């Protein structure tokens, strides 16, 4: 751990005074956590059958694992999306490494998971799910909201953003109606495909349906990578802005200087860097507020959460906005990321529950700290940990596979 931390400090020396400001960082661990053993790990695999369309392909289905970890008569909850188009996903093989932390005390377990990521051994698909579960358990043992243990000060509601992943104009409008029905129509994200005419048609239809006041965010997933000339790319983005798009995530596979150029050449359109922000521990090194007006901190890509909070602090200090993204999440991770968004005073949060796609976990929730208010914003009534209480017996009956470690 010492070598890893020294490397991180060396890499981030330019912003280190900010990151170590006493007003921001509070002790990561609390006294009770030192003596608590990780007694049990339970995994619940849920298949989602709703198709999702992207510029790079189609998810016919996707697989999510809900995680709970137990210690001191408390249960922490987390989630990670583990695969797509693999309905026969091997849960046992995927989780073999989890044996490493069973039996450790809670602090050592958290440090082990962090080290595995920072040393390049485990991917975010593993570490984020485990860490959010362990941090939830820590807060419940301490009887304090984890957000407060971390020293995050945000508590005001944050707008939720609804995501549309459809190619056909008619289906785009149908999904926009669902957004209205769920009170999520003020901020809407639309997946794009790098086909200018199709994208323009869909953005125009969405703007017409939502009206002038909604914020529309386009997400091509770097789908315009075939447009190599930055001036030409800028013209495409300006035209999409005129069609109704307010912001755009990663229109192409762009480096720092290219993002800076693009933002300076698209007028009032907001560029929202995403891929370059992954993972948090590395993107702190090369963050530059000229790259965009908002910056996406994307679940399943950040790796570790101390660095997420440090990076968010740097973004806010620069005067730019924070977007908390999504990984098509359906369960325990939604309220976790919503509270990350609130604690870090984000501009909006995409990680919202999706009952129209899969409601198995939602139907097992007995208590939750976050809710959607009448203005389409996520509110929080802080509870110990991240506040989830779940009917585990019911979840076992709903899950496609269950594994106890």
State the gist of this model.
The chain has helices at residues 2-11, 16-19, 91-94, 106-118, 124-142, 146-149, 169-181, 196-210, 230-243, 256-263, 280-286, 305-317, 332-343, 392-398; strands at 40-48, 52-54, 57-59, 62-71, 74-84, 158-159, 162-164, 187-191, 215-219, 247-249, 270-272, 294-297, 321-324, 348-349, 365-367, 370-372, 377-380, 389-390, 401-404. The chain is an alpha/beta fold and 405 residues long. α9 (230-243) links the parallel β9 (215-219) and β10 (247-249).
What share of the residues lie within helices? 25-40%
Distance between the termini: 26 Å
- Multimerization state: single chain
State the low-pLDDT regions, or none: 1-27
Q: How many distinct beta strands?
A: 19
Going across the biggest sheet, name each strand in turn: 7-8-9-10-11
Q: Please state roughly what percent of the residues sit in beta strands, choosing from under 5%, 5-15%, 15-25%, 25-35%, 35-45% or over 45%.
A: 15-25%
Instruction: Specify the structural class.
Output: alpha/beta
Rg over alpha carbons: 21 Å
């Amino acid at each position: 751990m010492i070598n890893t931390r020294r490397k991180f400090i060396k890499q981030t020396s330019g912003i280190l005074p900010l990151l170590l400001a006493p007003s921001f960082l509070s002790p990561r661990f609390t006294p009770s956590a030192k003596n608590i053993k990780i007694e049990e790990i339970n995994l619940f695999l849920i298949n989602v059958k709703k198709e999702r369309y992207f510029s790079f392909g189609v998810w016919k289905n996707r697989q999510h694992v809900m995680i709970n970890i137990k210690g001191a008569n408390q249960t922490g909850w987390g989630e990670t999306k583990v695969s797509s188009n693999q309905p026969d996903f091997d849960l046992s093989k995927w989780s073999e490494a989890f044996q490493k932390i069973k039996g450790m005390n809670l602090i050592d377990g958290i440090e082990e998971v962090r080290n595995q990521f920072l040393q390049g051994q485990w991917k975010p698909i593993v570490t984020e799910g485990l860490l959010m579960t362990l941090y939830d358990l820590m807060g419940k043992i301490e009887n304090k909201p984890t957000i407060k243990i971390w020293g995050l000060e945000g508590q005001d509601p944050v707008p939720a953003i609804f995501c549309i992943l459809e190619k056909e104009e008619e289906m785009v409008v149908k999904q926009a109606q669902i957004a209205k029905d769920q009170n999520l129509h003020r901020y809407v994200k639309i997946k794009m495909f790098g086909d200018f005419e199709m994208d323009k048609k869909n953005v125009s239809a969405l703007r017409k349906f939502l009206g002038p006041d909604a914020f529309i965010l386009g997400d091509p997933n770097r789908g315009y990578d075939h447009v190599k000339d930055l001036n030409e790319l800028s013209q495409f983005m300006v035209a999409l802005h005129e069609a109704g798009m307010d912001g755009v995530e990663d229109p192409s596979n762009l480096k720092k200087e290219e993002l800076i150029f693009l933002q300076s050449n698209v007028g009032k359109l907001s560029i929202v860097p995403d891929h370059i922000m992954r993972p948090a521990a590395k993107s702190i090194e090369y963050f530059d507020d000229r790259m965009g007006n908002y910056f996406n901190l994307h679940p399943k890509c950040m790796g570790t959460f101390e660095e997420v909070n440090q990076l968010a602090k740097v973004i806010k200090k620069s005067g730019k906005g924070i977007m908390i993204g999504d990984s098509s999440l359906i369960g325990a991770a939604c309220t976790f990321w919503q509270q990350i968004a609130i604690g870090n005073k984000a501009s909006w949060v995409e990680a919202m529950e999706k009952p129209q796609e899969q409601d198995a976990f939602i139907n097992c929730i007995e208590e939750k700290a976050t809710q959607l208010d009448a203005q389409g914003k996520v509110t929080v009534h802080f509870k110990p940990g991240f506040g989830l209480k779940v009917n585990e017996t019911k979840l076992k009956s709903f899950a496609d596979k269950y594994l106890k470690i």
